Amino acid sequence: MENFQTPLLFITLLFYILAFVVYFINFTYTKGTLKIHARFLIISAFILNTILLVIRGLLIGGLPLRNLFEFGLFFVWAIILIFLLVESKYELSSSALFVLPIVILLLLFLVNLDVSIRPAMPALRSKWLIVHVLTAVISYGAFAMSFALSIMYLIKDWLQEHKPENKFIEVFPTLEKMDDLSYKVIFIGMPALTIMLVTGAVWAEYSWGRYWSWDPKETWALITWFIYSAYLHVRLRGWKGKKAALLSIVGFLAVIFTFLGVSYLLPGIHSYA
Amino acid sequence: MLNFLSSIKLAVILITTLVLASIFATLYPALNVFGSFWFRLLLLLFCMNLFVCTLRSLPSLFTKIRKEPGGLSKESSSVRIIENIDNLSHYKKSLLHYFKTKRYKIKERSSNGQLNILAQKGFLNLVAPHLLHLALIIVLLGGFISSFSSEGKVKVFVGERADVPPNVASNMVIEVNDFQTLYDTQGAIENWVTDFNLYVNGNKARTGTTRVNNPFKYKGVVFYQKSYGYNHLVEIAGEQEGIYRVPDGKIFKLEDQFFNISYTRAGALVRFFRGHDVVKTQILKKGDKIAFSSDTYLQYLDIHPFTVLGVKKDPGTKIVMSGFLLMSMASMFFWTGRYKEVLISFNDVENKFYFTVSCKNKAVKDGIIEDITKKLEVE
Ligand code: HEM
After folding, report:
1. Does residue B132 sit in the same domain as residue B26?
2. What is the pTM for the complete model shown?
3. What would the pLDDT profile of B248-280 be if each residue is shown by its tens digit?
4. Which of B23, B213, B310 has its CB closest to that of A123?
5. Chain A residue numbers touching B188 (CB-CB < 8 A)
6. CA atoms within 13 A on the CB side of B82
7. Which residue, of A260, B118, B327, B359, is most buried by count of CB atoms within 10 Å of its CB?
8. CA–CA distances in Å: residue A14 to residues A7, A42, A44, A100, A104
9. Domain boundary at A102, A118, A134, which?
């Protein structure tokens, strides 16, 4: 089964790319007639993604959440899961144009990683780790969705002012709806991020004897948490629209930096994950 | 002043400063920003901000929770009035039924021929931010106490004793009975376990085990499985005759031959070197001999494992952990529904009723208003 992983990963990536292309054609050339096909493709890709995770889980005999590859695969899965949930409740299919590129870029990064199975070191065999990483995935997925909505908000806002004839103005949901949903999604992600930080600290206490070491990965997770908590508070003080969208984008950049930048650019004890 | 100290504005300023300071700190780790005085001052301000804000919001929170039905004024713009109802008592019943099935908390009071009803729901969501703020204060307080913690390490060979570092606990001695590496069914290392006795003032106080992710606690002192290693007991005959304790992996020279001994699951592995290259390997079991020359040999006597335990005494940990628990609870409260409140007054004499709905989410609020008015049409 181990040899299936790479081909399956490529097929999954291919389906996500195809879904993006069809969504793009759907919105630019065919006025929505291809939506059902695009939806079929993204759901297929999501199912393939799920199968890949299940295979990986069977291979390692547990939840596949132990290294960068497994976490990345789960991250992509969570982004699409949250997209599908939000999309099925609110008519938002145009956000696929922004969610899918995030997913595709992440997968292009993942295909370069080592997929071989290595046993987990004892410190990683903890139930706290499972809650920790699962909540990380949920919150990061939610923040990715909010990021996509915020980018769309800024684009539509700009188009309305500078290119009022542009057809994407019609394609995108209203500014209010995108703003409101971006906030709602952060409200799902933020508690999950809080639980992620807490369970990470509890796990560190049990395994290293120190709940907080200020290592770069921890610090950046905390920075991310601060940014989104600033987001929630400024919204209470009436920030909306453009300013809120910018803050949500900054928040997601912090997420990406925590996820990738820290492992590659800064030194620290989390570097195995 | 108090207004500013408890304001969201200050909170946002502080959060922004903390973000900038933390980014700076990860770029220049040598500057030890997190241990600096000004960073602590920032955290203290942060605590005060949270504390004053939480204190000031408590009264209005309790007022909301303990609110009584009634007090609807007909003039207020948020109050809706419905008149000329055919069957008021029936309608009353069906509304109450609606609130009950939606799991509202209902309070009823009648006065001056009016029946007043208060239906509330979503208290958890209402207390969530305050609980979260409180939890943060607790965590920061615990963190402050933790900065006075003491910690150290003990290295103990199996079968021997060693003192727990006196800065952590005085007159505490550890005696290690056993150290084991555990393997899972696939042969990978699952954990490391130390079995030990704990002596306090010379008396045996407890037997315990530590393993990774599973520390042992005794009266506020916590023991963590930190590290381990092996020595090998060997007997050498010849010029350097004697019994030696050889550290795992360390290279020695005997009769012009370089070699080391390291632990493997199959036994002690001896490697002979020429320069950096391994030229010969051999597994030794207890009693095995290797001849180096006609009168020089090495006999493997026994493996001698040691364990290294981290030892910590930190009264702050418990406080931080309870803060964490509270933080997680508060976080989950955010996921429960918004706080909603419906106030209703039935007036039998005038055959009318008044109601008002409050909820910060406009869509939810409109939904409730619609539900209430719809009930009327169906009846
Ligand atoms: C996950 C993190 C946090 C969440 C979700 C959160 C949530 C909230 C919410 C919902 C409110 C409004 C409460 C109300 O209107 O009664 C609020 C107010 C406030 N928060 Fe936070 N908060 C968080 C962290 C923080 C932090 C870290 C600080 C510290 C700087 C802080 C300081 C404040 C202050 C000062 C207020 C104003 C209280 C008032 O005016 O009544 N919060 N927060």
Report:
1. yes
2. 0.88
3. 989 988 888 899 999 988 889 999 999 889 989
4. B213
5. 119-120
6. 20
7. B327
8. 10, 10, 11, 12, 9
9. A118
